[in-house]
Every structure is written in C-alpha cells, then in structure tokens.
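Reading group handout, session on sequence-to-structure problems. Before we discuss, look at one worked example. The prompt was deliberately terse, the way you'd type it at a terminal:

> structure SWIM-type domain-containing protein

The input record follows.
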Amino acid sequence: MADKYKQWSVQRLKCELAQRGAACGGRKINLIERLESYDRNKNFREDPIIIPEPLDVFWPITGFQQLRPEHRKSMPQLTYHQIEQYFLYRMAEDKQMTSDLKALEKGKDLLNGERIFACSMSSDDAHIYLSGIVGAAMKQKLSYNFKIGIDKRTGDPLNSHCECPAGKGPHGTCKHVAAVFLMVESFVEKGNLAVRKGCTDNLQSFHVPKKIYDGKPLAADRIPWKRKHTDEMLEDPRKDKYMKFSSGYSSYIYNCMVNFCSQSSTNISLRYLTPSTSLQVASRDHDYLQQPITEHLVDKAVAVSPKDAKDIEKSTRMQAKSKTWFDERKWRITASRFGDIVKMTCRRDTRKLCCSIYQPKSIITYPIIHGRQHESRAISMFEELTHFKVKKCGLFVSVKYPFLGATPDGLVENDAIVEVKCPYGGRDVDIKPGKKFPFLVESNGKITLKSSHKYYDQIQGQLYISGRKLCYFIVYTFCDILILKLEYDEEYCVFSLLPKLEIFYKKHFRPYVASCL
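And the output record:
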C-alpha cells in the first residue's frame, strides 16, 4: 500500500486525507505516513453498529371476513387494562416505559368521531388478526391501513402496525391503533361495533325532516341570527306611554302569569320573557327551612333502598370502565378517602378536601401505574397460595349512610373482601416494616397493619359498607408477597369512624356539593 501512495501526487494524497477527515498539511512523506496510519487503524473509527430490522411478524393475507356482530362470540375478552398496559410499556426486552397514553386519549376521539372505516377479522388456533382502514384525524381524504394481532386465549395485544409515521410495527402505538383496540373492547363488552357504515348500508334519508328545535322559547331580539340587525329592524312599534310600566305593575303581571301557569298547568310564551332564576338564589328565598333546598336535593340524590344498593353494585362491576361507577361515586365519600377525613385537623383546608373528593383530578404517576399493572398479578398469586377464587365486585353503597361508598378489589366467598397494595418504593425488596412499608408494624413477632394508618380506615369502611367480616390484605412486590387477615372492628367503626364521616358530610361535604349545583 505504501508503494501505491508513493506513486500518487500530493494533491491526490490531500484529497484522500480530506475524505477520511484527517489533516492535510505537511510534506509528501508525512502525507503518506498519515494515510498508512489511517489504514492500519481503520480510519480510527469503530465498526459500525448495524441496527437489525424489526421482527417480521406473520400477517395472514387471506381468510379475512368483515367484522360482524356474530363474531363477538369468537373474540377473546379484551379489557381497557390490557390496552393501557400495551400502550404504557414497549413490548421489548428492555421493558422501557413509553407512557404513550396520549395516543389512547386521541384514539377515543377518533372512535367517537366514527373514523374507523373498515375492519376485517381472521383467526388461527392461537391468534386473532384484525385488518382495516382508519381515517386521519385532521384530513378527510387521508386514511391508513392497520394490522393487529391478539392472543386468542387471553386477549392480550401482541402486535400492531399502522401506515402512519407513529404506528410502525411490530408494536405500533399510534392513535389509529388505539381507536381500533378501544372499538374491539367496546364490541366484546357491549356488542357495539363502531365501524362507519357506507352510504349504501344505511336507509335513504332524503324524506326525513330536519331536526326540530326543542329548546325553550326566546324573545325575538335574543335569537342568534347570522345577519346583524340594526336598531331600525327591531324598532318597538308601541307608543311611549305603553312601553314604560311601573315596577309594581310589572310585578303584578308577572305574579298573575306565574299563578295562572301553576294552577292551570298551561305553558304560555309570556313566562319566557322573564329570565329564570338560579337554584342558588331560589334556595335563599326559603331560609325558614331546616336545611337549604340544595342540600335537601343532595340527600335525595344519594338516598338508596336495599334493592337500589344491590343494583348499583351489580351494574358497576367493571369499575373504572363503567360510566355508572363514576356517576354513583360523584356525590359520595368513598373508602379510599376515609383516612384523610378521620385524620383531618383544624388546619386542613376543608374546601380543598371536598373539591378533591367531588372533582378528583386524573393523576398518572409511576406508583399509580405500578399498582394498576400488578394488582391482577397479586390476586392471581393469592388464588394460587390460598386456593380461593376472587370475584369481581362493584360499588357498595351503605343504606343507612347512603353518602358512603366502597369498592374493594375483590370478594372471597360470602364473608370476605380483598384489598391489594403494590408499593412502588418497595417493589424490589422483601416485605418488612420500615421506610419502604410505613403502613406495616411488627407486633408480638408478627407483621400486621398499623391501626393509625389510613389503610386501616379504608379497610374497616369497606367491611362495614359491604357487610362482611374479614379482609385479606395483600401486599405484593416483585420478590415477596404478604397476606394478612384483618377482622371487622365494630367498636371502632360505630363509635369513631362513622360518626366522624357523618359530621364531615353534613358540615362540609354536603354544603360544598350543594354549592356546585
């Protein structure tokens, strides 16, 4: 190689060095030595790292059928928890967290906007394959093809691919894939197949009348016209002496109108000329009552009969995936907040506490995500160790204290509940009382739950409201599991916990909810 470089001109040597990113100064012999050194050391660069292409997942080409209601029986159970887990963690060996939850929110918007144009299904012995078209969010004429693979036995999402830039497979997590997963979840659970129908799939509608306005009547000058009206167009034709009435005469006309409507149950347009009063203002007109009207409405809204309580529990067993679960919890104090109320001091801002109960913010943190992800695993290990079967449950509502509610993590037989805790700080250590597990204490050589911790108030409240006598308290980490049997403490509940909750409800929470009406 040295003889080769000796035959080169100085200009050619400098060009070669420049291409390799080396200095080009010096005499010819220096240039040759520099090139020889670069040849020996491979241009002083390490071998390039060749990134392999993603695993080529098998996608069937034939055998697809349009997804129809009768396919619901052959679809596995796919839950929102499984979808969230798929979008939360990249399905790779490093288990790197992607927290791609915004795609799920945008996918809901696509689903509600009927942007899934087509969906077909194929299956083999172990997998369910879905293929179809999803429209772009911002462009009407742009759409993307998607492919999805689901485990036929468990319903776990396995693979996904979309033609959009964010959905490259084999584990794409774009909003278009999210919309399809959410559609499948709704289809399996409720039978709702939210695929946009073609124009020939719907009945002709040219003879259907336009939607009739069904709001309350408006005065002509309050109608939101598109054209701007001048004062001349809305000129009042009445004479001046008829346009101005005394306040007493106006009140007389208003009272006559109200009395006539209330006695005859007749609705006349004249009553809409007077703006309606707010509920808060109306409640001040009846200050002679034992409690404000708004608070009476709150009590009436939360009141339940024994049959109503059973129906609520049965209809909310999907918990966070059930709209009814959120609706029934809204005006009630749930067991997870019992500890905050019982431990409340005079320095606590009660209005902020009531706001956090009535309008809880959606907070996504690593401890919360960790608890959601591993709760099912903890219950599975509990079933393996104890040979008990844990059943799902919904929101329990107390008949005697209807403003209280509780949702245990599960039920065991007819007299026990299950409550699971997966502490994020102690996920990699053995379970023992200390900094990682501040809710545990060692007593008489045995580990138990601190009676002063808010978890104790939560569990005692759950036992009282559900009418059960025993709680299996499960603490789960990656390397250990602890199962404690906690019995119902009737004396503590009746003489301490419930009176404090009732006082808080009547003195703080009920007035706050009433002020939001």
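Points for discussion. First: The chain is about 35% helix and 15% strand. Second: The two ends are 89 Å apart (CA to CA).
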